[in-house]
Amino acid sequence: MKYMLLMQAPPAVWDDLAQWTPEETRAMVDFMHALNKDLEESGEWVDGQGLTQEITTVTASGGENGGPVVTDGPFPESKEVLVGYWLVDVADKERAVQIALRASACPGRGGEPANQPIEVRPVGEAPEV
């Protein structure tokens, strides 16, 4: 079954990352590469990416009379923004949670585990028609 693992963080994460030492950044990147490589080797990897800063985001929707509405950024009242995701194909929810827990332990400043919450969501399938 496919699961999407969503990593969210406060918008200030980008300011904080700019203050990291090169060694702290390397530790985070190396951790993520190792996680992704392990998922590839186990056959559970589908896709995963880190996302750019939310100021590069636009939100699009249909407006009145079908016209498009495009606004800059996520909603300003958002306390957290999506910073990355993994799409995995695993045997069960428990395995998806194991992967999310590993991702959550990614090193943060000073090398300590960031313990970032990772949302685990099953990917739905279209109903038969």
Give an account of the 3D structure.
With 129 residues, the chain is an alpha+beta fold. The chain has helices spanning 13-18, 22-42, 93-104, and strands at 2-9, 45-50, 58-62, 68-72, 81-89, 118-122. The mean pLDDT is 90.
Q: For the residues shown, what is the average pLDDT?
A: 90
Give the SSE string: EHHEEEEHE
The side-by-side strand order for the widest beta sheet comes to 2-5-1-6
Number of helices: 3
Number of strands: 6
Radius of gyration (CA) equals: 17 Å
Shape descriptor reads: flat
Quaternary status: single chain
Low-confidence parts, pLDDT < 50 over ≥5 residues? none
User: Helix/strand-derived class?
Assistant: alpha+beta
Sheet with the most strands, sense and barrel status: 4 strands, antiparallel
The portion of residues forming beta strands comes to 25-35%
Helical fraction = 25-40%
What is the distance, rounded to the nearest whole angstrom, between the alpha carbons of the first and last residues? 21 Å
Describe this protein with a few key phrases:
129 residues; alpha+beta; 4-stranded antiparallel β-sheet; two-stranded antiparallel sheet; 29% strand
Set down the secondary structure blueprint.
Blueprint: E1 2-9, H1 13-18, H2 22-42, E2 45-50, E3 58-62, E4 68-72, E5 81-89, H3 93-104, E6 118-122
Antiparallel strand pairs: 1-5, 1-6, 2-5, 3-4
